[in-house]
Write a structure and sequence with these properties.
This protein has helices at about 5, 10-25, 45-55, 80-85, 95-105, 110-125; strands at about 30-35, 65-70, 75-80, 145. It is α/β, with parallel strands linked by helices. Strand 1, helix 3 (about 45-55) and strand 2 (about 65-70) form a beta-alpha-beta unit. Helix 2 runs parallel beside helix 6 and helix 5 (about 95-105) packs antiparallel against helix 6 (about 110-125).
Length: about 140
């Protein structure tokens, strides 16, 4: 089995999908999680590539957020779209990264991802609140590479 398959159990994956659904109940923002074993590219560059592959740059308000994980590399990136980046400070995602990193240091990956998603949803709600007629533009399922 690859490290990607060992990273989370099916039950943990479902908890993460549910966290995305709950977070998106309060915002028009779209949150995705992508997990892969490793990359030969710079992690941020690979996260941007995955962002585009998942068509996250096609949301109506340009308010998608990708949580990208390279498991074997022990690295993760939070990548927001133009609509978010145009409105927020450069350190906008630092609190979310810190929450996640603290869990990861103790080996609690699922809770780190869930708390990161919850925090991202709270942050997005400030700039992109949910409104009548908002639709879920992107899948909540975890993608794997």
């Amino acid at each position: 089995m690859s490290k990607v398959e060992d990273f989370l159990t099916k039950a943990e994956e479902q908890e993460i999908v549910e966290a995305i659904r709950m977070a998106e109940n309060n915002t028009s923002g779209e949150i995705r999680v992508h997990i892969e074993k490793t990359t030969s590219k710079a992690h941020f560059d690979r996260a941007l590539e995955v962002f585009h592959e998942l068509r996250m740059d096609e949301t109506k308000l340009k308010n998608g957020v990708l949580l990208y994980f390279a498991v074997e590399d022990k690295s993760f990136v939070i990548c927001g779209d133009k609509g978010i980046n145009d409105l927020v400070a450069d350190d906008f995602w630092d609190c979310t990264k810190d929450i996640m990193s603290n869990h990861f240091k103790s080996g609690n990956f699922k809770q780190g991802i869930v708390d990161g998603i919850t925090n991202a949803g709270e942050q997005l709600k400030k700039y992109f609140p949910w409104s009548e007629g908002d639709t879920n533009e992107l899948s909540n399922e975890i993608s794997k590479g």
